[in-house]
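Section 4.2 – Deliverable D4.2 (structural model, holo form)

The reporting period included a commitment to supply a predicted holo structure for the target in complex with magnesium ion. Inputs used:
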Amino acid sequence: MKRKLINECTLRFPALSRNESFSRSVAAAFAAQCDPAASDIAAVKIAVSEAVTNAVVHAYRDEEDAGRRIVEMTLRLYSGGFLRIIIKDRGKGIEDIQQAMKPEFTTAPESEERSGLGFTVMSSFMDNVKVRSAKGKGTSVTLEKQLTTYENEQ
Amino acid sequence: MLKIYNDGRRITASISGDIDHHAARELRVSIDEVIASSRPELLIIDMAEVGFMDSSGVGLILGRLKAVKAVGGELLVKNAKKEIADMIRFSGLSYVIVNSEKRDYSTL
Ligand SMILES: Nc1ncnc2c1ncn2[C@@H]1O[C@H](COP(=O)(O)OP(=O)(O)OP(=O)(O)O)[C@@H](O)[C@H]1O
Ligand SMILES: [Mg+2]
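Output (structure tokens):
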């Protein structure tokens, strides 16, 4: 079955920590248009927060103008309540994606108190998480979820 | 936002709002200040007013657990909503969660 694109939106913002709550609120509002279960909205917020926080915390680390570098979030809603979210940066990239996605793996210094659980959390709250990354070019994280809507319960 | 109730031996840190990377920095500094000055036997993190938490919150709890252990104290998290409790369990920290339905913490 081919999914029909119903709505889409792209948000571009600088890699500032204040945009973590802003971007997850936008994603929640976008998902809300198909009236999904409250737990689905909560899941979307958590996963987006993890991916955007990674772009803020890791992607532009050690770069002088880190706070002015751009993060891009694209939201796409398909027929039947299928949601796809792509979060992209043009930062340093991930050398070993498999290793990065393991629970408790982090490259952040201990003083920053990262738990290394971001990707684990994304995978457990979304149906599908795809990571593409190239060293020195950036990272893109695709999050997919079939939302439980009134419509597809019929 | 953070409210601290301190009776000298027991500190309750009552957090409200979202716990993410942005908010965690300030929370950490404020809670660590009172841990250092009061050296509590017990630090209770009250999550009743927290509507959202991501893995940054897990880092915050782990960090405070270390800080309070370093002064010989214990840490408990109470009133965490379901998603938040699930998040804490990912980190293997289930033992710090006090469940209001299963355990009586009225005396804490
Ligand atoms: N956008 C990104 N750009 C560069 N590196 C990244 C990016 N996202 C993740 N990483 C790398 O993958 C590792 C694991 O990410 P993950 O989100 O699972 O844990 P964390 O961010 O280190 O800790 P936590 O999310 O629990 O605070 C990071 O430590 C980092 O090295
Ligand atoms: Mg992370």
